[in-house]
Amino acid sequence: MARGDPLLSGHNYVPWRRVERWTCIRCGLCCRNFLVPLLTHEALKIYKTFGPLIVQVNGKIALAKKPDGSCVFLTYEGGIAKCTIYFERPGVCRLYPFYIKVGAEEGEEDALYVDETGFKYRVYIDTNCPGTYKGPPIEPIIPKVIETWRRFYGWWAMSRR
Ligand code: SF4
Ligand code: SF4
């Protein structure tokens, strides 16, 4: 994997085939611990809909945080994390704890996923997410992860190849 990628800091990404199971246990750890980088159109939408709840960090636009470091949109109900903009949450929130790279790479076969058109991806999962090794088998989840990635980042990633 690319070293120095800011999206990877604070994470422990491993190839998806090395983690048999995953489910979101709604602990909210990701919403408390990580910066949420935004695409330009996401930042504009957040700004227009919810107000100036965006910040610039190291030249990147991200969601603002509360004084305790958690996302401004995080709340808890009965100990369960709840996103108050769930249906409009940014792409990075929808993808976490997964991370996608385009194309195959030697030595990274455990991360390989080939879609229905034969296009190759490398899919990683952050084992710092407490939902790893829990819940249903991970394999049927991967096509949905790829679909989400395509929807939010496909055009952007392809334009940078
Ligand atoms: S850290 Fe993992 S289990 Fe916890 S809310 Fe985030 S995705 Fe769900
Ligand atoms: S926008 Fe929602 S899902 Fe994303 S970090 Fe904030 S509370 Fe969590």
Describe the structure.
The structure is a single chain. With 161 residues, the chain is an alpha+beta fold. It has one domain (11-153). 23% of the residues are buried. It starts with 12 loop residues before the first strand and ends with a helix. The strands form four sheets. Strands 1, 7, 8 and 9 form a four-stranded antiparallel beta sheet that branches. It has a two-stranded antiparallel sheet with strand order 2-10. It is built from four helices and ten strands. Strand 8 (112-114) and strand 9 form a beta hairpin. Bound molecules: iron/sulfur cluster (SF4) (2 copies).
The best one-word shape is globular
Report the structural category.
alpha+beta
Amino-to-carboxy terminus distance: 16 Å
Quickly count the helices. 4
Q: How large a portion of the residues is in β-strands, by DSSP E?
A: 25-35%
The radius of gyration is 16 Å
**What small-molecule ligands were found?**
iron/sulfur cluster
Number of strands: 10
User: Mean pLDDT score, rounded?
Assistant: 92
Number of domains: 1
Task: Summarize this structure as a short list of keywords or feature phrases.
161 residues; alpha+beta; two-stranded antiparallel sheet; globular; disordered N terminus; binds iron/sulfur cluster
Please outline what is shown here.
This protein is of the alpha+beta class.
